[in-house]
Amino acid sequence: MSLNAELRAFYESRQEQIPARIREIMNRAGRDIADSGQAEHALNTGDAAPDFTLPAATGDPVALRTLLASGPVVLTFYRGAWCPYCNLALRALQQHHGDITARGARLVAVSPQIPDESLSLTEKHGLAFDVLSDLGSDVAKQYGLAFDLPDDLAEVYRGFGIDLQHANGGHARTLPLPATYVIDQNGVIRWAFVNTDYTTRAEPSDILAALDALGR
């Protein structure tokens, strides 16, 4: 089963568990962010990837320029460990981590969570790649991915028991759009997936195909 087929099956099974009023708030927020056109204005293929240095789950700094010195980078943005769609996507990337590294690439994931949250996520899912903390979503902003949750959706998340104020180090409202980039050693984005729909993610097979295309 493809990742997005798995995500769709999870989405459909979850819908009947969510009250209609809550579903409407979530669906309206989804329509609004899609209609905003933000995905079309985010960085895309051919753009230069902004450099950054962010702390890993261990607290150690990781710089994009340092990673690129040894090969291409697969950079993926996710919302947080509280997001089940993100967890499914990260587990799928972990399953293909060996295929990514076999192509000489480095995989890194970025979220607005504090390092402690990233460490818990890394340990829970046995992730072998770096999970970086972008507090305040400053890097996500550089890539054109950051957006603020509307008030009613933020309240829905609080009702679900999701404490974004804590998880995001005081930046409770700002999240990144789901996005994955393949960046070549010159720092140029050679493949991009950006979507306002958090239930849709980059397929690992497409990422691998993009990495294979770098050598052509």
Structural write-up:
- The protein is built from 11 helices and 9 strands.
- It has one domain: Glutaredoxin, CATH 3.40.30.10.
- Helix 7 links the parallel strand 4 and strand 5 (130-133).
- The protein starts with a helix and ends with a helix.
- The chain has helices at 3-15, 20-35, 38-41, 64-68, 84-95, 97-102, 115-125, 138-142, 151-159, 164-167, 204-214; strands at 53-55, 61-63, 73-77, 106-111, 130-133, 146-148, 174-176, 179-183, 189-194.
- A 5-stranded mixed beta sheet has the order 5-4-3-8-9. It has a two-stranded antiparallel sheet with strand order 1-2.
Helix content: 40-55%
The level 1 CATH classification is Alpha Beta
Instruction: Tell me the strand percentage band.
Output: 15-25%
User: What string, H for helix and E for strand, traces the elements in order?
Assistant: HHHEEHEHHEHEHEHHEEEH
What shape does the CA trace take? globular
Features:
alpha/beta, 5-stranded mixed β-sheet, 11 helices, single chain, Glutaredoxin, 216 residues
Explain briefly what this protein structure is.
With 216 residues, the protein is α/β, with parallel strands linked by helices. The protein has eleven helices and nine strands.
Secondary structure: elements and pairs:
Elements: H1 3-15, H2 20-35, H3 38-41, E1 53-55, E2 61-63, H4 64-68, E3 73-77, H5 84-95, H6 97-102, E4 106-111, H7 115-125, E5 130-133, H8 138-142, E6 146-148, H9 151-159, H10 164-167, E7 174-176, E8 179-183, E9 189-194, H11 204-214
Parallel strand pairs: 3-4, 4-5
Antiparallel strand pairs: 1-2, 3-8, 6-7, 8-9
